[in-house]
Amino acid sequence: MNIDHVHFYVEDASRWQKWFTQTFGFQQIATHRTAHSITVELGNSAIRFWVSSPCSQASPIAAYLQRHPAGVADLAFQVASLETVLQRAVEAGATILQPIQYSQSRQQKTAQIRGWGDLQHTLIEPTHASSPANPDRFTSDRTGSEFIGIDHVVLNVEQGDLERAIGWYEAVFGLQRRQNFAIQTERSGLCSQVLCHPGGSVQFPINEPASSTSQIQEFLDWNRGPGIQHLALRTDQILPLIAQLRQRGLAFLSVPMTYYEQLGQRPGFQLSLQEWQAMAQQEVLADWPPDNPQALLLQAFTQPIFDQPTFFFELIERRTYRLEMPHGQNHQPMRTAEGFGEGNFRALFEAIEREQIKRGSLR
Fold first, then answer.
1. How high is the pLDDT of residue 131?
2. In this structure, is the dihedral angle defined by the CA atoms of residues 223, 227, 233 and 234, taken in order, positive or negative?
3. Within the chain, which residues score under 50 in pLDDT?
4. 210: nearest Cα among 180, 179, 187
5. In the list 7, 139, 180, 278, which could disulfide-bond 74, CB 3.0-4.6 Å?
6. Same structural domain, 242 and 333
7. CB-based contacts of 278: which residues, under 8 Å, 6+ apart?
8. CB atoms closer than 10 angstroms to residue 204
9. Is residue 129 located within the same domain as residue 219?
C-alpha cells in the first residue's frame, strides 16, 4: 500500500495552487470544475496533491470548512485489492462513502471510506502498472524535483483514543506497529505510535496529547477534532533545498544554538564543521542511532501554512551509508537511514512549545 495523493480542502484553490507552484515548484496537472467546487491537481513525478475549494454553500467542501479550518481532508491510498480493504473496513465498522467505481480514462478502480474523525480515505486500485503520479504528465525541466516522495503523514487524535485509532488502522489496512514515543517536558507531553505497511511505503504515526496543555491538544482545539497534523516530504539535499525555500518565503520553526552545541557533544557525532554550521544556519535537526552514527536522519519543520496553528510540512533527508560487513567480505551494500529519531522528535516538540508560548497558549 502506497500514498496516491493528498487532498487539501481550502477556501481558495487558485490561491493555494499558486502557493504550491511558487513555493514548492510543483506543476499543475489538471483542473476539475463542477457546479459546487473546483479542484486543482498538482505535484511532480513522485508527489501528487489535490487542492479543492467550494463554489457554493451546497458543496461538501463548504460543509467541511464550516466544521474545520483548511487542511488535509483526504489521504488517498493505492491498494493491491480494493475488495479486500473494503471488506476489512466494513468488518471494522467503517462508513463507506463511495462504493467501487471504475474509471476508464484513468484505468483504475476507486472507492472511498471515512477514516478517523472527519478524515477520508480514497482507495485506488490501478488496473495497470502505474505510479502514484504518472511521470508523463510532467515537463522535463525537473521543477520541484528536489522532493523525491512523501515520507510519512502524521495523524493527531483525542486523548484516550490512541489505542482505538491504532486498532482501526491495523484492522482496515493491515498497518503494523513500529516505534513508539512518550515525550514529556515540564509543561506538556504527547504519546505517539508509528504505523507502517509491511508491503508498501506508508508510514503513519499517530499522536495523542498527554496533557491539556499539549501542542497536540492545541491542534485538536484549533482543528475542532482529530486530523492530519503534518506531512513529511523527502529530499536527498535538505540543506540547499531549505535555503531555496526560505528565499521563496517559506518560514521554518526556529531551533536555538544550544541545540547544535549539544549535538556536537553527542556520542557518534561525525558531521564536518562546515556541515554542522550549515545545519545551524538552516535550523535543521539531526539524529542517528547510538550504534550506527552513519544512519543520519535530517529534518526541518515549517511554520503552520494556514491561518490557524494546525497543519505544517516537514522536510526530511534519510542519508545512505555503507553497511559494515564481516572481515573478508568485500561487498558493502548501501542502506538508508530508517525510522524516526527520538532526539529529533523531542526537539520538534520543544520547538512547537516555544511557538505555543509566543501565542500565549502555553505558560
1. 45
2. positive
3. 130-142
4. 187
5. 7
6. yes
7. 239, 284
8. 22
9. no
C-alpha to C-alpha distance for 100 and 82, rounded to whole angstroms? 8
Strands 297-301 and 71-78: unpaired
State residue 66's pLDDT score. 98
- The pLDDT assigned to 250 comes to 98
Count of Cβ atoms closer than 10 Å to residue 279 Cβ: 22
Per the listing, cell 497543519 goes with 311
Gap between the Cα atoms of 181 and 151, Å rounded: 18
Tell me the CATH number at 36. Answer: 3.10.180.10
Tell me the helices (H) and strands (E) count for the chain, helix number first. Answer: 9, 18
115 domain residue, yes or no: yes
Q: How far apart are CA 144 and CA 23, in angstroms?
A: 9
The number of domains in the chain is 2
Q: Mapping DSSP to helix (H, G, I), strand (E, B) and coil, where does residue 354 land? A: helix
- At 317, list the grid cell: 533527508
Q: Which of 105, 137, 169 is the last residue of a domain?
A: 137
Residue 182 included in any domain? yes
For the purposes of burial, counting CB atoms within 10 Å of the CB of 350, is it exposed (0-12), middle (13-18) or buried (19 or more)?
middle
| The model's pTM | 0.92
pLDDT at res. 134: 46
Q: Which pLDDT tens digit goes with each residue over 311-335?
A: 999 999 998 887 765 665 666 678 8
| Distance (Å, whole) CA 268 – CA 274 | 17
pLDDT of residue 266: 87
Task: Measure the CA–CA gap between 305 and 251, rounded to whole angstroms.
Answer: 9
Question: What domain range includes position 87?
Answer: 2-137
- Among candidate residues 82, 114, 137, the one where a domain is terminated: 137
